[in-house]
């Protein structure tokens, strides 16, 4: 299990040629790409390097998915307001976290684009080549899925680019980006194995690709397609994926490779590759994941997930997310669960309800599985009499099941509830807040609105 972690650390030294005076659509470089990508081993190291780049992609996801929402609030120290700007909807294009995310995302995309552009020129065993292609396509789809939800119109880069070309790469609209995401995931499903064993555990699979595809289709409102993709995952229940009996076991660091976690970003605790900005403890004395009182009160009284998620021993006004437990050293090594099987069940439930409410139908059964595990009574038609009420029940269940996993804000946006929900809780939220600003540094580099234009509401 630890093999992949060791290899990823080594692979981080692998880099691709870049240039400082460009839009940040390529990774930083220490080694020329012309001297690399010559052997199968090079490509193995390159794909592991791409996996390592996901740490930057997900290391701050709570800023966008939870602190932005009604779930958590940041620790504020002195004049450092970068995180507070996410919480109070005052974020500006010059925010450093916005720039870092953009750079991290395009660094990951550049890595996988180089792999996809070059791998067919190398003699390699076909199963290995296909697996690496599938991994690269999955990573690209995952990163673009984050980019399009965070920034909206972004450059859709599908090949290696260098130098001045990067400054001339125009934005694509979300529809084009989602088409590419679906295409990448469909191809990834063809190339990837259903599951992995031994030292390969921790890499992505066709199961993860189908689960992500279901999430993408749910986001775009394609509910029949979402159902189709998600049923390919539920068909594997018991053998490849499963809902663990106890909620806390999902996040037990000694049980990282359990059947509920379909795909996770892997971390070590070596002082370099620890969690960073995450759902557990960034640093013990400065947590970025204080639960709001509203989140605490969102749990039903008998819901075991509240105690397993929130540490309220300090005070109800200064609670800490405790789902993953504290790391004594201050650096966490809990893996980041990008997609869990409970998410698949709830997404399938939602997609069925959106196609038509069925009293006490399959959508109810799927929803009630996570409720029962949490020690709660099953919901019936009596409590949830229609489609609208079922939507709210799903939203509530997703909130408490996935608290501080980076999903809440995106759920509010895709269901178009972000303004009403956040306004009702005292936040000043406007329609344009569904997106974040394009980094100011990138706007200035390009200096051409026909190529890179700031999102509405953030022009200065």
How is this structure best described in words?
The chain has 17 helices and eight strands. The chain has helices at residues 2-11, 40-58, 61-67, 82-87, 96-118, 126-151, 174-191, 206-220, 223-234, 293-298, 304-309, 341-355, 362-373, 387-401, 408-414, 418-424, 440-446; strands at residues 72-73, 154-155, 171-172, 261-265, 290-291, 310-311, 320-321, 336-340. The longest helix has 26 residues, at 126-151. Helix 5 (96-118) packs antiparallel against helix 6. It has 460 residues and is mostly helical. Mean pLDDT is 86; it is low at 1-23, 26-31, 270-286, 313-318 and 326-332.
**Relative helix content:** 40-55%
Helix/strand-derived category reads mainly alpha
Strand content: under 5%
CATH topology of the largest domain: Serine Threonine Protein Phosphatase 5, Tetratricopeptide repeat
CATH class of the largest domain: Mainly Alpha
What integer value in Å does the Rg equal? 21 Å
Order of helices and strands: HHHEHHHEEHHHEEHHEEEHHHHHH
Q: What is the approximate shape?
A: globular
Largest sheet report: 2 strands, antiparallel
What's the N-to-C terminus distance?
49 Å
Domain RagB/SusD: 331-458
Pfam family, one: SusD-like_3
Protein name: Starch-binding associating with outer membrane
Family: Belongs to the SusD family.
Fold topology:
Elements: H1 2-11, H2 40-58, H3 61-67, E1 72-73, H4 82-87, H5 96-118, H6 126-151, E2 154-155, E3 171-172, H7 174-191, H8 206-220, H9 223-234, E4 261-265, E5 290-291, H10 293-298, H11 304-309, E6 310-311, E7 320-321, E8 336-340, H12 341-355, H13 362-373, H14 387-401, H15 408-414, H16 418-424, H17 440-446
Antiparallel strand pairs: 1-5, 2-3, 4-8, 6-7
Helix pairs in contact: 1-2, 2-5, 2-6, 5-6, 6-7, 6-8, 7-8, 8-9, 8-12, 9-12, 12-13, 12-14
């Amino acid at each position: 299990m630890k093999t992949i972690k060791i290899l990823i650390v080594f692979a981080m030294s692998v880099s691709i040629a870049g240039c400082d005076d460009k839009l940040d659509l390529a990774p930083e470089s220490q080694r020329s790409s012309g001297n690399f990508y010559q052997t199968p081993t090079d490509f193995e190291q390159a794909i592991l390097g791409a996996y390592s780049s996901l740490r930057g992609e997900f290391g701050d996801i709570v800023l966008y998915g939870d602190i932005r929402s009604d779930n958590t609030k940041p620790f504020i120290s002195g004049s450092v307001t970068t995180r507070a700007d996410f919480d109070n909807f005052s974020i500006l294009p010059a925010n450093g976290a916005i720039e870092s995310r953009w750079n991290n995302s395009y660094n990951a995309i550049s890595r996988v684009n180089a792999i996809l552009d070059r791998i067919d020129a190398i003699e390699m065993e076909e199963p290995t080549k296909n697996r690496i292609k599938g991994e690269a396509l999955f990573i690209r789809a995952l990163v673009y899925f984050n980019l399009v939800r965070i920034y909206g119109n972004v450059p859709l880069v599908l090949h290696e680019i260098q130098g001045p070309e990067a400054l001339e790469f125009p934005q694509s609209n979300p529809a084009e980006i989602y088409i590419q995401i679906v295409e990448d995931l469909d191809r990834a499903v063809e190339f990837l194995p259903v599951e992995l064993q031994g030292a390969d555990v921790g890499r992505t699979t066709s199961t993860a690709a189908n689960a992500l595809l279901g999430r993408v289709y749910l986001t775009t409102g394609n509910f029949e397609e979402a159902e189709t993709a998600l049923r390919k995952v539920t068909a594997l229940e018991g053998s490849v994926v499963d809902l663990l009996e106890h909620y806390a076991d999902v996040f037990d660091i000694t049980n990282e490779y359990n059947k509920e976690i379909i795909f996770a970003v892997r971390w070590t605790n070596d002082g370099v590759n620890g969690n960073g900005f995450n759902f557990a403890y960034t640093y013990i004395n400065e947590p970025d994941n204080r639960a709001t009182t509203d989140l605490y009160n969102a749990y039903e009284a008998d819901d075991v997930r509240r105690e397993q998620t929130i540490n309220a021993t300090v005070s109800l006004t200064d609670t800490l997310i405790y789902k993953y437990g504290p790391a004594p050293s201050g650096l966490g090594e809990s893996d980041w669960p990008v997609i869990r099987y409970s998410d698949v069940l709830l997404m399938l439930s939602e997609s069925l309800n959106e196609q038509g409410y069925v009293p006490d139908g399959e959508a109810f059964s799927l929803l009630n599985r996570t409720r029962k595990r949490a020690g709660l009574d099953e919901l019936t038609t009596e409590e949830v009499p229609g489609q609208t009420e079922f939507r709210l029940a799903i939203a509530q269940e997703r909130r408490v099941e996935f608290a501080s996993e980076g999903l809440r804000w995106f759920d509010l946006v895709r269901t178009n509830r972000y303004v009403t929900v956040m306004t009702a809780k005292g936040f000043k939220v406007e329609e344009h807040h569904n997106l974040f600003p394009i980094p100011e540094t990138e706007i200035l580099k390009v200096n051409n609105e026909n190529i890179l234009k700031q999102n509405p509401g953030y022009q200065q």
